[in-house]
Amino acid sequence: MIRPLRAIARYLFSFRTRRILQFELFKLRPKLFGPRKQRVPAHSRLHLGCGTRKLPGWVNVDLSGADVNIDLAIRPFPFTSESFESVVSQHVVEHLDVEDEVFPVLSEIFRVLKPGGEFWVSTPDMEKLCRDYVETGGKKLHEYVMWRDPLSLPEGAPERFVLNRMFHQRGEHKNLFDFELLKWALEKAGFTSVTRVNEEDLLARFPDFPPRNDEIELLAVKCVKP
């Protein structure tokens, strides 16, 4: 039964469309069966989009396999207001639609943070990506992606194709930010003291996070709930 359905899907839809549909179907379980009731979390630090990197002493959140499985697009978050002292989100916001998801998610993060709480967020830096494209034709980024995830590029693609990968990632990326755009979105949600940081700052503040070694593409920002 599965094979005929896959064959029909390959005939009807492009690879990118199939990936998007697959991801939306993957989100159905936490959408339908994820927690709804707000509760006091077990820890005062929230790790959004943890993936396989579940950290002890944190509430690790993702679509599946986490301490709490939720779709970030479902609001409100299942946590009481002003529950967390710190929230960290690495490479998540680029997967969210700006109007329908980014602003509501930032508002929810603001709600669950305590006054004076910190939000650390990272995402690919549109300015860095464009600068490398203009200055080197994508050479440095191409070297980085070939080291990190070579199968994400079409076989034999020229170096400058890497910018398409960074902007779209086969339909998984919905937007990219530079610092000014991300600062605008964070301030719109109510955050203040929006400052640019780097991975060393994050690891010094939270040494339990493993390094990503992605400074070539990284936009990292720290802000505060007043």
Task: Report on the architecture of this protein.
This protein has 226 residues and is α/β, with parallel strands linked by helices. 39% of the residues lie in helices and 19% in strands. It has helices at residues 2-12, 15-26, 28-33, 98-112, 126-136, 139-148, 162-168, 179-188, 199-205; strands at 45-48, 59-62, 68-69, 84-90, 113-124, 192-197, 218-224. β4 (84-90), α4 (98-112) and β5 (113-124) form a beta-alpha-beta unit. The protein is globular and about 50 Å long. The N and C termini lie far apart (55 Å). The mean pLDDT is 88.
Indicate the topology.
Elements: H1 2-12, H2 15-26, H3 28-33, E1 45-48, E2 59-62, E3 68-69, E4 84-90, H4 98-112, E5 113-124, H5 126-136, H6 139-148, H7 162-168, H8 179-188, E6 192-197, H9 199-205, E7 218-224
Parallel strand pairs: 1-2, 1-4, 2-3, 4-5
Antiparallel strand pairs: 5-7, 6-7
The total count of strands amounts to: 7
State mean pLDDT (0 to 100 scale).
88
Q: What coarse outline follows from CA principal-axis ratios?
A: globular
**N- to C-terminal distance:** 55 Å
- The topology string of helices and strands comes to HHHEEEEHEHHHHEHE
Biggest sheet strand line-up? 3-2-1-4-5-7-6
Sheet having the most strands? 7 strands, mixed
Rg value: 18 Å
Q: Which regions contain 5 or more consecutive residues with pLDDT less than 50?
A: none
Structural class designation: alpha/beta
What percent of the residues sit in helical stretches (DSSP H or I)?
25-40%
Helix tally? Answer: 9
* Beta-strand share of residues: 15-25%
